Target: Dioxygenase
Amino acid sequence: MAKMPILFISHGGPNIVIDESPARDYLETLGERLPTPKAIVIVSAHFETDGVAVVTDPAPEMIYDFGGFAPELYEMKYAAPGEPELAERVFGLLRDAGLGPSRIEKRGYDHGTWTPLKLAFPAATIPVVQVSIDPNRDAAWHHALGQALSPLRDEGVLLIGSGHITHNLRALFPIMRGGKTADPELVEQVNSFTGWFAQRLAENDREAILDWKARAPYPAENHPTDEHLMPIFFAYGAAGEHPRVERAHASKQLGFFAYDSYLFH
Model:
């Protein structure tokens, strides 16, 4: 069996499921572009714990972790099953790597999980296991999570990091609500940051990538808090020592809110 690729997805708001956008179009093509996975292990920026946790729930329900969106979004279901046996395998790999995982017996799908999966795998027949981030840990720690779970690629399991390449909601919401356009300085800050990541990933400059807060341009302007970037380090860690990195999608909302997504081969 060939190794499965790994995904980093900028998942957008829950309305990505119903609103036309280039990011939505990209997510809808993923199921056709990838080998059909036996199962999915997903790390969502919206699943935060102290340390790393693995969900063993055989039938996760829904978490509508958002407010003020279209009513139909609160009625949507993503009925993919969990897979406790795979969850135990994930737990064991993390434990053996010295990462001290815990188990969570019941947890639904947050929108960082169900919205991209609903677009990419709408049949909801592929089992899904959820793994958390720890917003108080750094890039290197999340990279180690990916390294620990990398063997699953050889077992037909698709590993996904679901976050956002930029996530400055403090800038986004006033522009959205006011019908304004982003000022050129903000656009330049986003372009510099996303371009830096694209170049460093293409060069496999691991030292710089894991030291992003000190080396990337405008880190605080793009990520006032770190949690939405942590899934990219998980994906990068799972890709091994010499990954082939594809910037598979790059679009912007309102000219500045970036939706870059990556495939690691």
